Structure formats: C-alpha cells, structure tokens
C-alpha cells in the first residue's frame, strides 16, 4: 500500500540541495514526457489543475486546486496531492502533499535559474511576498546559494514580520523593506511571489540584478510593471521556465514582450551557456516537469533523498 505523506514528511523527502540538482537532471533527461496540463475553471476565479508526467522509471499526476478567494482565511489557497507510480509495474509508490511539492519545486526552480543566470549571487536578496513561497525562496536561496541577508516586503505587515523572524531563527540576517522599489536598488537578487493581483515591483533593477517572478501564471495576472519587463528585454535578458510561458506569463504578455523569443531554462542548461551581461528576469509559470522531478526524488525514499 502506498504511503500517504503529510506536509512535513513530504518536505523531508525533498531537501533543497537534492531537489535543485534533481530538477537540473530532469532537464537533461530525454525520457521525460510531459503532456499539456488541464486547467479547468471551477468557482469564480478558481481552477483545478491536472498535471501528469513520466520518465523511464516514474509516473506521476498532480491534482491540485487553486482558490484565490481563500487568501486571508484559514483554508489554504492551494490544495491537492501528487500521486507517484512505478512505470514498470504500475504500482502506486507514494502520495505526496501537493501544496508542499508546489512550494518547494517552485522555489527550487528559481534557485536553479539563479545558479545558471544570476550575475551576482552574493545577495542581499529582496523577497516581495511573505507567504508560503516567500518562506520557501528564503530557505532555498540560503541553503543552495549561500545567501545570508534578506529584505522582506509584503502588503501584510504581520506576514513580513513572521518571515523576518523565521530567517533570524535560521541564523540569517533579515529586515523589513517597507518600500520594495527602494530596496531593489541594494539587492542583486529578488523574487516576487505574491497572489499577483497587481503590480508590486516597478523600479528598474541594478545592472547585476536577477529577478525571479513566480506569482503570475495566467495572462491576466501580473506582478511586474510593463516598463520593468521592457527594460529587461532591452537592456538585459529574459528567460522563462518553460515554453508554456508563451501563453501564461501575464507579466510579459501585458508588457508586449515576444515570449516565444525568450530562451527557456532547459535551453540554457542543455546548451551549457549561462553567460550574458546585464540584468536577468527569470519568469516562472510552473510545469508538471518540476513536479515530476520532486516525485522522482521523493520516490527514492528518505534515506536517498
């Protein structure tokens, strides 16, 4: 019988350094097959995602709901599971907590993007949005890239304070950033991970900046000002997580950016060419391949994760 793991047990199967490495390995694996995901509208503004994928050994399906109306309530915005199967036998291996997989693989992809693309990984790092993704990004950038100083900006003062406290409990330096745009000038690393209900970052970045934008994953959602996106296109480089961003990256689409002309993270990794000068915008919309990477790692068991 397959084990059903709770959030803590799922996180334990997905340690940050191993997860980042597994995502990179997946991008080099020719056996990976990821069909187009199903995005079915449910309640007003809410959707149900069905995201399958497999490689030569492992198959998985992520079934997850996204309900923006739950923001600010006791009910999570993201709920669901990731079921992992053995390809050879069809046996169900493990059932993972979906929101935990989503949080960890999204942040790990940002860290992989920074490892390949960021001109300056020394920090400090600005985190705009102090929810689950803000916490995940803080942890992975600290553990994998060695960032030790963070500035936290959030519309919720309580959430921002809680994330600062969490960082300090981990032995990191962290402080509140009342003005995200002002803080960006001192931060070569930044991530926007908000509900994407409106622009949260407008300032033009430093020449050595790396900005990961993960909150907006539909054409209607947005976190970055159009002028900021166009500046990145003109003066730096824009890289997307996958080709699906061509019809999902609201920040870029609303700025009139030709998303099809932007390289993907897989293109960069497979070419082995991290180079380039100027600021980098890494636009992440999500992909079942990232969940498959997490499923592959988790299926090996806690002793091998």
UniProtKB/TrEMBL annotation:
<dbReference type="InterPro" id="IPR036291">
    <property type="entry name" value="NAD(P)-bd_dom_sf"/>
</dbReference>
<dbReference type="InterPro" id="IPR023401">
    <property type="entry name" value="ODC_N"/>
</dbReference>
<dbReference type="InterPro" id="IPR003462">
    <property type="entry name" value="ODC_Mu_crystall"/>
</dbReference>
<dbReference type="Pfam" id="PF02423">
    <property type="entry name" value="OCD_Mu_crystall"/>
</dbReference>
<protein>
    <submittedName>
        <fullName>Delta(1)-pyrroline-2-carboxylate reductase family protein</fullName>
    </submittedName>
</protein>
């Amino acid at each position: 019988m397959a084990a059903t793991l709770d959030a803590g047990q799922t996180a334990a199967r997905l340690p940050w350094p191993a997860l980042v490495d597994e995502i990179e390995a997946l991008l080099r694996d020719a056996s990976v097959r990821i069909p187009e995901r199903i995005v079915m509208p449910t309640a007003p503004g809410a959707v149900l995602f069905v995201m399958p994928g497999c490689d030569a050994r492992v198959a998985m399906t992520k079934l997850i709901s996204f309900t923006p109306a739950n923001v600010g309530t006791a009910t999570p915005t993201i709920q669901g599971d990731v079921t992992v199967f053995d390809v050879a036998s069809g046996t169900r291996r493990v059932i993972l907590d979906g929101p935990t997989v989503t949080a960890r693989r999204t942040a790990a992809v940002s860290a992989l993007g920074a490892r390949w693309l960021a001109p300056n990984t020394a920090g400090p790092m600005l985190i705009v949005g102090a929810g689950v993704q803000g916490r995940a990004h803080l942890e992975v950038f600290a553990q994998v890239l060695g960032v030790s100083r963070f500035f936290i900006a959030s519309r919720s003062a309580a959430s921002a304070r809680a994330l600062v406290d969490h960082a300090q409990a981990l032995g990191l330096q962290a402080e509140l950033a009342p003005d995200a745009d002002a803080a960006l000038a001192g931060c070569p690393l930044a991530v926007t991970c908000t509900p994407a209900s409106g622009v949260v970052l407008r300032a033009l970045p430093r020449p050595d900046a790396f900005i990961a934008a993960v909150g907006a994953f539909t054409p209607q959602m947005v976190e970055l000002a159009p002028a900021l996106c166009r500046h990145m296109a003109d003066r730096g480089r824009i890289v997307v997580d996958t080709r699906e961003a061509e019809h999902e990256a609201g920040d870029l689409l609303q700025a009139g950016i030709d998303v099809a002309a932007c390289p993907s993270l897989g293109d960069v990794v497979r070419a082995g060419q991290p180079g380039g000068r100027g600021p980098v915008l890494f636009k992440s919309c999500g992909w079942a391949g990232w969940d498959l990477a997490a499923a592959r790692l988790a299926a090996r068991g806690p002793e091998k994760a």
